[in-house]
Amino acid sequence: MLAAISLYRLPDFVMGPMVGPFYVDLGLAKPVIASMRLSAGLIGTLIGISAAGLCAVGLGFNRTLLIGALVGPASNLGYMVLAMAGLSTPLFGGVLFVENFSEGFAGAALVAYMSSLTSIGYTATQYALLSSFYALLGKFLKGLSGAAVEALEPGRALMDAYAIFFAGTAAVGIPALVLCWILQHRHNRLKTATPS
Asked: What does the pLDDT read at residue 194?
């Protein structure tokens, strides 16, 4: 459970520092970035959070967590497509919407799951420990993102290096997806083993 929590948002942490430089290297103008963030990005985030809330109510915390573990890292592949396609404002808007939807969904799913793990008497302390634990590895590894892109660049075009990097950030999410599936499987087993 702790391993799943610590790895859950790792793709976002690792990708995050390189998004701004990628926009600049791609040739996106600052006004375009700002307007897309305030339109497509904001709408995507709000819909993602709402969708996670509805899933948590309808499917339960574990299934919602599993869906978030799949949707979150998969959205990083949109940046890979954008790097390969080149400068395109409509494509950028679509990628930004999908990324923000996924981050909103995965973030809300993780918060709901961690909240479900706390007991009433120690909610604040337990949640603080869990939220610190989930951020620890990501905060450390995100400092290596720029070095990763630089290491991928020799012998390649810059956009190809970015494309490989973004694909790698999506792959970083595979262990969390596997662990969330194991948690879901274990939860189902315990549910069927417990008499009603």
From this structure: 65
